[in-house]
Amino acid sequence: MNKSILALTLSVIGMSVSHGQTIAAWNFESDSIATNNNPVADTNNTGGTAVADSIGMNIYATPNVGVTKDDVVLGVTSGSKSDTGANGVANGTNTWRVRGQAGSNGAANGWSSAAPIGTQGAQFFAPTTLFTSSTLSSVKVSFDWYSTTQGEANLEFAYTTDGGSTWHNLALTLGGSDTGLQVLTNTTSSKTVLGSYVSDNLSVNGSPAGQDWFTGLTATITDPSALGDSGFGIEMVNASTGTDNVSTQGTALNNSSGNWRFDNVTISGVQAVPEPSTYALILAGFVLLIGFQIRRSRS
Predict the structure, then answer these.
(1) Which end of the chain has fewer CB atoms at under 10 Å, N or C?
(2) Other CB atoms closer than 10 Å to residue 53's CB: what's the count?
(3) Long-range Cβ contact pairs of 10-15 (< 8 A, separation 24 or more)
(4) What confidence tier does 134 reach under pLDDT thresholds 50, 70, 90?
């Protein structure tokens, strides 16, 4: 009896100190410095295929309709060190730049204020079929984001549990190197996503904007459908359209330049942590166990 109680107690304690598990991660170090529309996952524990791609770069005229031409770039040579803005954060490692380029129609950039909300940006799909609610409580996502001076200022984060047919808006939490970035909520404008988004907008946050790396943006997905799901994915996309779709300088998007870059995109499972009442039960179990041992030794 005593051994059973002790084993159960230790098991519950073990749950409280266990760590999350990486499902899939992209830091782009496994990719060559080159055009790359589908960078490989540097870590893939899905048991299947983890996929990264961009959307909307070959649809809208900027000034012409172009082709998707994302690329992996090295920070030191591509400009992320020299382009570091007022927040002083640099990135000298491989990063993924999302953009369009000229095709047969002539000059094009990809990013467009004509794109409807949530139709341009990056998507990352990672099945969570090996990670179920019996062992995990939620899914955590973290990533670094960079927008150039003429890049779009407003970014929406969303997740899907059905392979991208339906997307759910979710608020981001800022990390420690996100000076100049704000979490905002829209409830009125039809030209910005109804819900949460982040903005690197000079006219909104009052501080210099553009050419800044924002690190450690996170979101926690507690939706039970996100676990044990073959169609799980996330996206970081344009939160605005039309006149709401502005550059980081707070000016109208010029539709001919600017881009976004990403780094350290990580999707991980968070293991359940006991409720405070569980800890109380653990303590009570220890007290009962000790009391039983004392009475036994006296008898």
Answers:
(1) C
(2) 15
(3) 12/274, 12/278, 12/281, 12/282, 13/282, 15/271, 15/272, 15/273, 15/274
(4) confident
**Tell me, what CATH number does 110's domain have?**
2.60.120.260
Q: How distant, in Å, are the alpha carbons of 5, 179, 247 from that of 216?
A: 41, 12, 22
Residue 87 in tokens:
């927040």
Domain that holds residue 80: 21-273
- CA quadruple 238, 242, 244, 247: dihedral sign: positive
User: In this model, does residue 185 exceed pLDDT 60?
Assistant: yes
228 inside domain: yes
pLDDT score of 285: 55
Number of domains the chain is built from? 1
Q: How large is the angle between the packed helices 276-298 and 2-17, nearest 10 degrees?
A: 150
- The string of pLDDT tens digits covering residues 282-291 is 455 555 555 5
- Written as six digits, the tokens of 34 are 């080159």
Q: Which helix (H) or strand (E) holds 44?
A: strand 43-44
pLDDT per residue over 55-83, tens digit each?
999 999 999 999 999 999 986 655 555 55
Supply the mean pLDDT for the chain. 86
277: helix, strand or coil:
helix
User: What's phi and psi for 236, nearest 5 deg?
Assistant: -120, 110
Residue 51 lies in a domain: yes
Instruction: For residue 9, tell me if it sits in a domain.
Output: no
pTM for the whole structure? 0.84
